[in-house]
């Protein structure tokens, strides 16, 4: 039977990797998800076969049922606008599960020791690492969810970001406390002989949980996509550590895949913002989550336009670039944008989509959103590929994107986002910015693009205004 388990694990790992490869593009992403899901099913079956002699089958089955009941409905009902929140929550649940596994392992092995009383190094290190990182990931993800869902009062959030230095000091103390407790548990804790030993593992989970809260609370909204990716990587690493303690091959491999891919993605996103990961974690910018601010503070004049004027500009252009942002996602305007682009293409206008690496609220948010509307993958252009196109583009229409188009990142050394690579939309011959109001973006800073000489503002709901532009195009 052990041979069957090994074979199932190998097949499952192969499907994990093959499924992950499918996630590199919208055309193969759905298939990749299905393949990875089947691989996970095989891994679960192999694990159940491996523990066939256990007497806890009822509890195991009950856990599987509860997981399906709680996991499937939100996955089916969640809109693309709330997908980052769902990812944060699911990621947090994974980290919390790993922390609980470490706690259970502590109780089951008499303080991470074998039955004969001899310490088991891989169990001790793996379980303690899983407890600390899993707890950090869980509580950090909860904060990320609260921020993304905008459940936190804006003024409170702004004060939290302003107190980042205090949080940093607290996190250093909490990190030292976590390591001290972990060392004590590894050397001295023995639930079989010491009734107070269980308090130490709970103390470790609480201290690590506080660290997770304090790490993410002061991080600004503009950095949240990177934070989600980082927490995802941490959850994977904690799962791999728990797998090491449990001698579960599936958890080790799956955890390392998630940890490695999440780490690579986090690093790539940080580079896309021209910032280091420590700078994001310990010195974030912009945390008021989009508190309204007048963007003509620089003294410029805001010029409004109409849907008919916008339609005329784009209809007689040679090339139009669409820059999607979170506002497009909130309005669910992707299908309206696709229809507008199709009409332009019928008139001989070349339409491209400029995708910034951190546009939206999570990695790949805009890619998935546009793929949902069946926008051609070839029309989606990454920042490095499209930036050279703007200076020969007739019209760029910015839909709900703010911080990733802010020229202050390139021109103003005093700006909090100075040095962050942006989409060079201001170099276009004409720019149409579609927004509900003159409020600032998620980083909470002014955008001089809105008052530039070549920029016109089209105010209103993205879906409604794009639909109006489409009707005007039909009438031309």
UniProtKB/TrEMBL annotation:
Subcellular location(s) of the protein: Cell inner membrane
GO molecular function list: NADP binding; oxidoreductase activity; proton-translocating NAD(P)+ transhydrogenase activity
Catalytic activities: NAD(+) + NADPH + H(+)(in) = NADH + NADP(+) + H(+)(out)
Main location: membrane
A GO CC annotation given for this chain: plasma membrane
Class in the EC hierarchy, top level: translocase
Domain NADP transhydrogenase beta-like: 6-471
Topology within the bilayer: Multi-pass membrane protein
InterPro entries per the UniProt record, alphabetical: DHS-like_NAD/FAD-binding_dom (IPR029035), NADH_DH_b (IPR012136), PNTB-like (IPR034300)
Record's keyword terms, sorted: Cell inner membrane, Cell membrane, Membrane, NAD, NADP, Oxidoreductase, Translocase, Transmembrane, Transmembrane helix
Pfam family name, one: PNTB
EC number: 7.1.1.1
Entry keyword annotation includes Lipid metabolism: no
Transmembrane segments: 6-25, 32-51, 57-76, 83-103, 123-146, 166-187, 199-219, 226-246, 252-270
UniProt xrefs under PANTHER family: NAD(P) TRANSHYDROGENASE SUBUNIT BETA
Family statement: Belongs to the PNT beta subunit family.
Function: The transhydrogenation between NADH and NADP is coupled to respiration and ATP hydrolysis and functions as a proton pump across the membrane.
Protein name: NAD(P) transhydrogenase subunit beta
């Amino acid at each position: 039977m052990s041979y069957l388990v090994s074979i199932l694990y190998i097949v499952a790992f192969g499907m994990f990797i093959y499924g992950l490869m499918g996630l590199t593009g919208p055309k193969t992403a759905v298939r990749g998800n299905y393949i990875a899901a089947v691989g996970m099913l095989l891994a679960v079956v192999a694990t159940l076969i491996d523990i066939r002699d256990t007497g806890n089958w009822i509890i195991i089955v009950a856990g599987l049922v509860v997981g399906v009941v709680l996991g499937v409905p939100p996955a089916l009902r969640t809109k693309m606008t709330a997908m980052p929140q769902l990812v944060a929550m699911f990621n947090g649940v994974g980290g919390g599960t790993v922390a609980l596994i470490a706690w259970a392992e502590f109780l089951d092995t008499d303080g991470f020791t074998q039955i004969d009383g001899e310490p088991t190094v891989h169990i001790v290190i793996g379980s303690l690492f899983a407890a600390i990182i899993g707890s950090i990931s869980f509580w950090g993800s909860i904060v990320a969810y609260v921020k993304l869902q905008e459940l936190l009062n804006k003024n409170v959030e702004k004060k939290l970001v302003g107190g980042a230095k205090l949080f940093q000091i607290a996190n250093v103390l909490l990190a030292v406390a976590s390591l001290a407790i972990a060392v004590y548990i590894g050397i001295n804790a023995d639930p079989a002989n010491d009734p107070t030993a269980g308090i130490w593992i709970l103390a470790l989970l609480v201290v690590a949980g506080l660290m997770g809260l304090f790490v993410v609370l002061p991080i600004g909204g503009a950095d949240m996509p990177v934070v989600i990716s980082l927490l995802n990587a941490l959850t994977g690493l904690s799962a791999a550590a728990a797998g090491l303690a449990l001698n579960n091959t599936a958890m080790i491999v799956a955890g390392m895949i998630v940890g490695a891919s999440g780490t690579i993605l986090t690093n790539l996103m940080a580079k896309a913002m021209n910032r280091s990961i420590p700078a994001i974690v310990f010195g974030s910018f912009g945390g008021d989550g989009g508190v309204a601010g007048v963007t003509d503070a620089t003294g410029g004049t805001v010029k409004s336009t109409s849907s008919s004027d916008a339609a005329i500009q784009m209809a007689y252009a040679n090339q139009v670039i669409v820059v999607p942002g979170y506002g497009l996602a909130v309005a669910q305007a992707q299908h309206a944008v696709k229809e507008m682009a199709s009409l332009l293409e019928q008139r001989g206008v070349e339409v491209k989509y400029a995708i910034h690496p951190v546009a939206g609220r999570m990695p790949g948010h805009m890619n998935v959103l546009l793929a949902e509307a069946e926008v051609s993958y070839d029309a989606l252009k990454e920042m490095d590929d499209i930036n050279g196109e703007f200076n020969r583009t007739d019209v760029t229409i910015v839909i709900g994107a703010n911080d990733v188009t802010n020229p202050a990142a390139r021109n103003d050394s005093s700006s909090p986002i100075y040095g962050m690579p942006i989409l060079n939309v201001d170099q276009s011959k004409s720019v149409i910015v579609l927004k509900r109001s003159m409020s600032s973006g998620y980083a909470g800073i002014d955008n001089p693009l809105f008052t530039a000489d070549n920029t016109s503002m089209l105010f209103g709901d993205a879906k409604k205004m794009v639909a109006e532009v489409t009707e005007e195009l039909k009438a031309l």
